[in-house]
Amino acid sequence: MAVYLGIPNVFILGLDGARASFPASHAWGNEAVSGPPDTLLYRLHQAVENLAKKEGASVWNASFGGVVHAIQKQSLNKIAPQLVKTNFDGALSGRIVLFKGNFLRIVPSVLGDGSWRVFDEEKARYLRHRGNLIILDGNADAGEHPDAHFHIEPSFVRSDWACFRSVNTDDAYITANNSFSAYTLRSPCDVFSPYFSSFQLYRSKEEAAPRMEYDRMLASIDQQTKSIGNLMMAHDRNS
Predict the structure, then answer these.
(1) DSSP 81-99
(2) pTM of the complete model beyond 0.85
(3) In b/e form, how buried is each residue of 107-127, taking b as 16+ CB within 10 angstroms?
(4) Taking the domains of the chain in order of start, what are their residue ranges?
């Protein structure tokens, strides 16, 4: 409709392509039970982009993350930064987030730029990026490094959750594809799960403990799945 109205550049939001979200994080819950197959969706997205080109227009997917790649991606931070809320309204100092089975506490920056650090009190480690990989670094000077400082913004899925943007890598956020994948720095244009790249904030470790247990249960299921897969492949080789 927008193309036929003569709008030359159309930017789409909320098009992440997640059909089987876990947990249910979309308006209709877990939509694996309905909707067209992925291949049909891909062709429909291609058709939209081709139609726009025929009419002399461009269509851009400005959604954060997701898996839709038939429509060219563009970062909303770049094209309309005034539309992106970057100020986190809630309390941050001392709040707890979960990362790979660890309780991490948000602590103030030493850079004086309004950024924050994320600290593992139990093992004296700071969350930081090395290259694009997110790690916990126990070196004595880890917390002083710019790689260990992040701007905290409202998350990709809920305004009371947080996402972490690097202070020294342009338009790059801590992201993951699922609850088991490695965390890496990615642009909003890249493929990642908005849900698993968002961090819930807790007032205490006790408050965060139930979610930590759910994460451990998921990790156990993932390990069992991999073990069963290895057994199946071994059986196939020997049969």
Answers:
(1) GGGS-----S--TT-EEEE
(2) no
(3) bebeeeeebbbbbbeeeebbb
(4) 9-83, 96-186
